[in-house]
Amino acid sequence: MPAELAPWLTFAIAVVIVAVVAVLLTIVVTIPFRIIARRAKWDPRLVGRLRRPFRLLVLTIGLLIALQFFPDLGWRAILVQAGKILVIASAAWMLAAGIGFLFSRADARYPMDVEDNRVARRVHTQTAILRRVINVAIVIVAIGAILLTFPGVESLGASLLASAGILSVVAAIAAQSTLGNLFAGLQLAFSDAIRVDDVVVVNGEWGRIEEITLTYVVVHIWDDRRLVLPSTNFTTQSFENWTRHSSQLLGSIFFDVDWRVSPARMREHLHLVLETEPLWDGRASVLQVTDAVGGFVNVRILVTAANSGALWDLRCNVREAMVEWLQAEGAAGLPRTRVELVEQEVRPSARPSKPAAREGVFSGSAEAEDRAQAFTQAIPIDEEPQPEA
Fold first, then answer.
1. Are strands 297-305 and 280-291 parallel, antiparallel or unpaired?
2. 229-280, pLDDT tens digit by residue?
3. pLDDT of 228 above 60
4. Which residues pair with 31 in a beta bridge?
5. What pLDDT digit, counting tens, does each position of 125-169 carry?
6. What are the CA-CA distances from residue 118 to residues 39, 67, 121, 192, 246 (Å)?
7. CA distance between the termini of the chain
8. What is the pLDDT of residue 320?
9. Residue 256 β-bridge partners
């Protein structure tokens, strides 16, 4: 065998050995893990997320070992450097997948599709925030490890540390809002102010918390819109949380009816409606006359339900049933606007008489009219006699 082919043969043998070892190691680890996953009824998608980075990690480690037997042709160092980068990247991917698997198993212990899921919502929110924080930390550490594999990075790091004072000030000013949202996201996760699937009213919009990230919160509004708000919006401004301690809620229904309405009969019909209403949880049902001004009687009905969605439908159903009852049975209570027309009687003696003509110098009598005629006519001017010549 020629001497120049010996290194290539050694490299090929090393690649074959590494490939066989990698396949055997993958089989040894995968088979028991699949058995455990099947018995524990783990989600196959979660297992698949672990399988891919594990195989990539084993493969890259084997290739890095095999490269040690690669013939030194001048670009062997480049391949070794690329292999190191792939090993670090695949190890970071494997670590992130393992952390995600553990958090997913923790979330599975607290299902969201239960009646009272307050604890589950808190756990899901905290695990989501922690998962993102850990993933960011893993990426930062991986990038740092990759940079340390390049020669000369130590001197670069020393120069960066020398100017760290100025850079830290500039970075703090530039990333002030980002860091504020980051810490606000952590505060929301561990202060239990809001949780995933909480029902909130923010900026005048009603919806559910769909996602909480490190920098923003996504609110799924009732009409399928998404309201994306920075995390600081929930730490610096007020908002309503309808499921802070419990999902049970109390709702009100208002009616403006006529003064002739019978509140007792309305109350009786309300009880009949609620007895056949499956959305009513039976905690409270109240009908009160809260006001009676402006020609109308204001009636308020209070009902309770297990959650906000059931409460909305319950209020609509009760309102519709009471309107139908008013139209059919309590027509006297339908709102009316009354106008009273009053005719005022005018006595003859009270009617003003035509004022009598007053006598004066030029009006009021025949003599005065003659004087007026005389004064308003042209006055003749007599011609002066001409002197005789």
1. antiparallel
2. 888 888 888 888 877 777 778 888 999 888 888 888 889 999 999 988 888 9
3. yes
4. none
5. 778 878 888 888 888 888 877 877 777 665 554 554 455 455 455
6. 29, 54, 5, 10, 7
7. 178
8. 92
9. 298
Strand partners, 200: 207, 241
**Average confidence (pLDDT) over 311-318:** 90
Distances (CA, A) of 166 to 156, 157, 317, 322, 323: 16, 15, 65, 71, 71
Q: Which two tokens stand for residue 17?
A: 């050995």
DSSP E strands, 128-272: 199-202, 205-212, 216-221, 226-230, 240-241, 249-257
Share of residues in the chain with pLDDT > 90 (%): 6
CB 339 within 8 A of CB 329: no
Average pLDDT, rounded, for the chain: 75
Q: What are phi and psi of 385, to 5 degrees?
A: -65, 145
Could you write out the DSSP letters of every residue in 240-286? EETTSS-S-EEEEEEEEE-TT--HHHHHHHHHHHHHT-TTEEEEEEE
Q: How far apart are CA 19 and CA 62, in angstroms?
A: 7
Angle between helices 164-174 and 176-191 (to 10 degrees): 70
**Two tokens, residue 126:** 């905290």
pLDDT tens-place string over residues 44-101: 677 777 778 887 888 888 777 777 766 666 667 777 788 788 888 888 888 888 888 8
CA distances from 356 to 239, 351, 359, 369, 370 (A): 80, 15, 9, 17, 20
Q: Which domains does the chain have, with CATH numbers?
A: 3-109 (no CATH), 249-333 (3.30.70.100)
Residue 273: count of CB within 10 angstroms of its CB: 20
